[in-house]
Amino acid sequence: MSDDPSPAEGTNPDPRSDEDPGADELTHTTDEGEVQMVDVGDKPDSERRAVAVGEIRLQPSTVEAISEDAVGKGDVLATARVGAIQAVKHTWETIPMCHQIPITNVDTAFELGEDRVELEVAVETTGKTGCEMEALEGVTTGLNVVWDMVKAVEKDAEGQYPDTGIENVRVLEKEKRRR
Questions:
Q1: Which of 24, 62, 92, 140 could form a disulfide with 58 if both were Cys (CB 3.0 to 4.6 A apart)?
Q2: CATH code for residues 46-178
Q3: pTM
Q4: What does the H/E/C string look like for the chain?
Q5: How much is the pLDDT for 127?
Q6: So what's the pLDDT on residue 25?
């Protein structure tokens, strides 16, 4: 349980705090059902870190082309890394109730399997709210960039993607340390 001060009367707790609100408690709505951004102004700053991971399933020949830097559009993993970092920095613009937070670090790591590329994104911040959404946004966008970079070789004769899919996107861990 968090030792953060209780929220002011009439407000809901921060959904990205360490407290787990009850299933019947919606944190981004008022008692009247109106959407709201959670007020985190009175929360103390703390060091926070979140790690998310996901993978894109590809044809083995595509993974091989990525590993040999032989994809016509360019360096797939370098481009996906830039996309992931950009997505982390802009999460607040795409997820409606996310706060804009100061990103202090982003680490990305790719692992190539026989028929997939895994991407892990770790995000760090010092602030009033967590960074899980930023890590997830980095993973999903990074994997979307991989897809965009390899779509020409992943398409079948009908222009479809029967062997391609983004899967297993999840938060691996989150940490909160008092300053």
A1: 62
A2: 3.30.70.640
A3: 0.80
A4: CCCCCCCCCCCCCCCCCCCCCCCCCCCCECCCCCECCCCCCCCCCEEEEEEEEEEEECCHHHHHHHHCCCCCCCCHHHHHHHHHHHHHHCHHHHCCCCCCCCEEEEEEEEEECCCEEEEEEEEEEEECCCCHHHHHHHHHHHHHHHHHHHHHHHCCCCCCCCCCEEEEEEEEEEEEEEC
A5: 85
A6: 60
Q: Say whether pLDDT at 30 is over 70.
A: no
Q: What is the DSSP letter of 100?
A: P
Binding site per annotation, positions for substrate: 97-99, 133-134
**What is the C-alpha R_g of the chain?**
19
Active site residue 148: yes
Structure-token pair, residue 135: 């890590």
Most confident listed range (4-8, 34-38, 150-154): 150-154
Please state, as a whole number, how many other Cβ atoms lie within 10 Å of the Cβ of residue 35.
Answer: 10
| Mean pLDDT score, 22-49 | 68
Asked if pLDDT for residue 110 goes beyond 90, the answer is: yes
- Between 169 and 127, the more confident residue is 169
Q: Which amino acid is at 116?
A: R
At 161, which amino acid appears? Y
Structure tokens of 43?
Answer: 């929360």
* Active-site annotation holder among 69, 148, 156, 163: 148
Domain boundaries, the chain: 1-43, 46-178
Distance CA 72, CA 81 (A): 18
